[in-house]
Amino acid sequence: MKAEVFLPDDYRPAEDEPFMNERQSEYFRRKLVAWRTDLLEDSRDTIEALQEGTRNIPDVTDRASEETDRALELRTRDRQRKLVAKIDAALRRLEQGEYGYCEVTGEPISLKRLDARPIATMSLEAQERHERREKVHRDD
């Protein structure tokens, strides 16, 4: 087991330090774990609310409105479930020492991009190329 890395509360990864050093890795690990925890708590709250919220509403319009709200909530939770899987994958890459590197080019992903989107697997340039190719093929 690795020794715990000291990380000040105000720490932010900087470009002038070695890429994905222990402090940066720990910073992103904590960020990913906190994000995952928040998503799972939201999911539990939603499940509890849906279980408690089942009621018989006589007005058809009110019932339709509630069903629409539930469907939207479930769709949101499904997206979050997929996001949790991406967070888990990012945590695995972190453990394997592959986190922060573009899966297409192998180059480091910018710290700003990782801070904004910690589950990023491609550099901004590679992501843009991927999206352009996807758009071209989708139009066919």
TrEMBL record:
InterPro entries: DksA_N, DksA_RNA_pol-bd, DnaK_N, Znf_DskA_TraR, Znf_DskA_TraR_CS. It is found in: Cytoplasm. Residues 97-132 form the Zinc finger DksA/TraR C4-type domain. Residues 24-94 form the DnaK suppressor protein DksA N-terminal domain. SUPFAM superfamilies: DnaK suppressor protein DksA, alpha-hairpin domain (SSF109635), Glucocorticoid receptor-like (DNA-binding domain) (SSF57716). Keywords: Cytoplasm, Metal-binding, Zinc, Zinc-finger. A zinc finger (dksA C4-type) spans 102-126. The keyword Zinc applies. The keyword Zinc-finger applies. Transmembrane segments: none annotated. PROSITE patterns: ZF_DKSA_1 (PS01102), ZF_DKSA_2 (PS51128). Transcription factor that acts by binding directly to the RNA polymerase (RNAP). Required for negative regulation of rRNA expression and positive regulation of several amino acid biosynthesis promoters. Belongs to the DksA family. Interacts directly with the RNA polymerase. This is RNA polymerase-binding transcription factor DksA. It comes from Lacimonas salitolerans. The gene is dksA.
